[in-house]
TrEMBL record:
SUPFAM superfamilies: SurE-like (SSF64167). This is Survival protein SurE-like phosphatase/nucleotidase domain-containing protein. It holds the Pfam family SurE. Residues 1-15 form the signal peptide. It comes from Zasmidium cellare ATCC 36951. The keyword NAD does not apply. It comes from the Eukaryota. Keywords: Hydrolase, Metal-binding, Signal. GO terms for molecular function: metal ion binding; nucleotidase activity. Residues 60-72 have a biased composition (Acidic residues). The keyword Signal applies. Residues 18-214 form the Survival protein SurE-like phosphatase/nucleotidase domain. Belongs to the SurE nucleotidase family. PANTHER family: 5'-NUCLEOTIDASE SURE (PTHR30457), PHOSPHATASE, PUTATIVE (AFU_ORTHOLOGUE AFUA_4G01070)-RELATED (PTHR30457:SF0).
Length: 307
């Protein structure tokens, strides 16, 4: 037998294993576009998401059941399908006929074993149809899925975007989809490039994108701003991490609604879905600082804006 030079394989960088879930359902186009974008960026991904639209179901969790008479969303599986299923053409696209939390856990505990021979390195949820800001994070299935991953010991990011409505996976791509997917991949890559551990224990990152419109029309028009989930209570709330010349972070809602630019908010929450202390904020800030911007000077009053 002749040995070919091709037997000497190049030492490939180890791909990062990622579980992707959401609350809009496994057949919604955003999650597919995020998968495609992360795959192009070199991630080794799989989708484990609800069979149906489970928007607004927070951290609900139930044993999956056989699919009912309406079938999966967007006719993506027939009535009477099993509680767990996958795409015929792409076994990495999996549904769980239950909640975001349930599907995220199945992705981490079960599908990861099959596809990655172990737990994933990181998990992401989204990007959601509609923002998940402030108090809405408490009922968001997207945030619920990310927090479940964190509870399973897997660092996680929740992504949500202002523009769009629920759309089937096979509909034509619209600009907002590719822009939000690119921005999500950017944050994910920035975090993973920072090295392990990607995040401190028991924290998740909540990322929200403002609208895609005539003003904010390409990936490069967006900037990332470090923020808080909830407004600080004067006197009572301890200082945030010091950045952009202040010990008080802007509230994520005010960042996303700020029309002086196209600002995406990046907040850090714990498994109770509330803001973490300055020390934990600092640890995440350090990892993401390469992509973070400050709000324009005259916009800093936005910090004081109430919920
Ligand atoms: C998905 O569910 C949410 C919450 O129940 C609802 O507001 C939304 O209209 C649903 N979307 C579709 C396309 O049915
Ligand atoms: C998923 O994995 C867990 C942990 O190994 C196991 O207990 C559970 O039965 C598995 N679930 C399914 C549906 O296979
Ligand atoms: C990621 O986002 C930052 C900040 O907006 C930008 O400077 C950088 O070019 C982006 N990187 C990629 C790969 O898109």
């Amino acid at each position: 037998m002749k040995f070919s030079a091709f037997l000497v394989l190049p030492v490939a960088a180890q791909a990062i294993n990622i579980v992707i879930s959401n609350d809009d359902g496994w057949a919604e186009i955003n999650i597919r576009e995020l998968y495609n974008c992360l795959t192009r960026a070199g991630f080794n991904g799989l989708i484990s998401a609800p069979a149906e639209n489970k928007s607004g179901t927070g951290s609900s969790d139930e044993e999956p059941e056989e699919v009912g008479e309406d079938g999966c969303e967007f006719a993506s599986c027939p009535a009477g399908s099993p509680p767990y299923g996958k795409s015929e053409s792409e076994p990495r696209f999996n549904y769980v006929n239950s909640y975001p939390v349930t599907s995220m856990r199945y992705g981490i505990q079960n599908l990861s074993t099959t596809f990655f021979q172990g737990p994933p390195d990181i998990a992401v949820a989204g990007f959601n149809v509609g923002t998940n800001l402030g108090i809405v994070t408490s009922i968001s299935g997207t945030v619920g899925a990310a927090v479940e991953a964190v509870k399973e010991g897997v660092p996680a990011i929740a992504f949500s975007g202002s523009t769009g409505h629920q759309t089937a996976w096979n509909a034509p791509l619209q600009p907002y989809m590719t822009i939000y997917a690119d921005l999500s991949a950017n944050v994910t890559q920035t975090l993973t490039s920072s090295g392990k551990p990607y995040l401190p224990e028991d924290v998740f990152v909540n990322v929200n994108f403002p609208a895609v419109n005539d003003r904010c029309h390409s990936t490069s028009s967006f900037k990332f701003v470090f923020s808080r989930i909830y407004p600080a209570v004067p006197v009572f709330t301890p200082d945030d991490v010091e950045t952009c010349g202040s010990k008080r972070l802007p509230v994520e809602r005010s960042v996303v609604k700020n029309t002086a630019g196209c600002f995406a908010s990046i907040s850090v929450g714990n498994t109770d879905k509330v803001d973490v202390d300055a020390e934990l904020q600092a640890a995440v800030l350090e990892k993401l600082k390469g992509i973070l911007s400050c709000l324009p000077e005259d916009e800093k009053d936005a910090r004081k804006m109430v919920l």
